[in-house]
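Box 3.1. Reading complex inputs
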Amino acid sequence: MKDAGAGGRDRPGLSREKVLRKALELADRDGIAALSIRALAQGMGTKPMTLYYYVANKDQILDGLVDLVFTEIDTPEAGGEWKEQMRRRAHSAREALRRHPWAVGLLESRKAPGPATLKHHEATLGTLRAAGFTVQQTARAYSLLDSYIYGFALQEAALPIAGHEPMAEVAGPIMERFATGEYPHMVEIATQVVMQPGYDYGNEFAYGLELILSALEPAQ
Amino acid sequence: MKDAGAGGRDRPGLSREKVLRKALELADRDGIAALSIRALAQGMGTKPMTLYYYVANKDQILDGLVDLVFTEIDTPEAGGEWKEQMRRRAHSAREALRRHPWAVGLLESRKAPGPATLKHHEATLGTLRAAGFTVQQTARAYSLLDSYIYGFALQEAALPIAGHEPMAEVAGPIMERFATGEYPHMVEIATQVVMQPGYDYGNEFAYGLELILSALEPAQ
DNA sequence: GGAGTGTTTCGTACAATGTACGAACAGGGT
DNA sequence: ACCCTGTTCGTACATTGTACGAAACACTCC
């Protein structure tokens, strides 16, 4: 027998929910590459094949992870001013993707959107439509905003370990090339921007977002 | 002894170059997941371990692939009008990433930029600086443009097999949900935009790009 | 020729992965 | 007692990257 409903007790049984949540934890801690069925099973105190009762295969776990990440993104509300809604959505999306950098790479290959993902898209589209955007305009605005958000997250994920010891491993192998004077503009950026004391690439996100939001307008 | 220089005969020997080029071919044909050392060796008519004479490990192959892709992107020239340069660069980047969709996901994890990658970045930065952007502005403009380009490519790569049979596999599993009327705005977009006869998502790229380029201006 | 030296190929082996298959166990309903 | 349904897991296999070291080859010098 199932234990009542889909709520979820805590001690005894496993559940699809718990499997996914543990997978999220492991992916965050050790990276998505280290998320193996065996490691996941071990983390849950069970054996590999047990997981297959709750999940059809590993792809389904990855799909589930993506949907979990969408859970953490603010969904626009129907009533609010659209730019403010989009701003909130964008910032929370970026933050979620920074918390789970592996998710960006996953977006590419997943093709089974989960309920949270669908709900999120639906709400966002609704907000734009309600703001007066035509269907066409809505599609374009959405594409533009999401491209920027995902692209920024992608670049942020590609950075060295994000703030830990400003530059060192990355600088090492490249510095030789830099020393040749072959890349003066990259050096310029590196020294005058990136390596500056308080610099945090994440703060640049707002700049591009505001630029885009300023240029977007419904109807015309 | 080595055969004269690093030019590269064609018939007999292998070479790092040829390994990478074959890897590119296989990745394009069968997807990045199918690119195994064994498959690659077979494709070149040799045995797996032979490849390790030319390449230290598989990661180096992936790094090489990313750099190969950058090879296909137009590098801005020093003299030209900057917006036109950025436009060309952006379009050719998007096209390259559409030809090699797997490359988008690779950008995230690679941390050893190849010579083509570095040269490309350097030239782009140079063009912006020459156009009068300050160092700060250059960093921001570059980040904004690349975020949009990569993000768009990411979304394009996430689409179904791009134009082949407009919607079918994707529609199938989701249509049930759609039928419930739970996602009216997604249906709206799907029917009135995406499923329209001549629709090609790729064409939307120009819209966002022009919007961004219009809003970008050096100095102030 | 033969010996020596460097370059290139590859056979074998191992550890790690996803997962198919089917057995084992649990608990309730009859 | 029996079975039914839900859950756990042992074993096994194919596929992956690649370490190790030997073999095959090419070329120079005697």
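In summary: Chain B touches chain A through 58 residues (CB under 8 Å).
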